[in-house]
Amino acid sequence: MRLGDVFTVRSKRFDLWCMLQVVETATDACRVVALARMTAEKPTARSLPPLEPFRSAYYYFASNAQLAICTLTPRELEALAEKIGNAAPTTAA
Questions:
Q1: What confidence score (pLDDT) does residue 83 get?
Q2: Of 39, 31, 6, which is closest to residue 20 (Cα–Cα)?
Q3: Is residue 5 helix, strand or coil?
Q4: Domain ranges of the chain
Q5: Strand partners for 10
Q6: Amino acid 58: pLDDT
Q7: If both were cysteines, with which of 62, 63, 65, 72 could 57 make a disulfide (CB 3.0 to 4.6 Å apart)?
Q8: For 6-39, what is each residue's pLDDT tens digit?
Q9: Cα distance between residue 26 and residue 91, in whole Å
């Protein structure tokens, strides 16, 4: 499990593919944030849209980033979702 890894999981509630990104890692746990894009087709590494956190613009909510952060063990994350790539920021040399 690496910082920036992107996973996809099928939402039973919306019948769409959702994406999660690893934002923190530790030996026995990792934290993921829900990303803004839901798609009807299963995303792949080549089809990754620009990644940004989920924003709630629902009813009276302002369009602020809603950092839905969840802590999971790497085993739980791999059982729940499928890794499709890594979108960690790169640093210039």
A1: 92
A2: 6
A3: strand
A4: 5-86
A5: 17
A6: 57
A7: 63
A8: 899 998 888 999 888 888 888 888 888 888 778 8
A9: 22
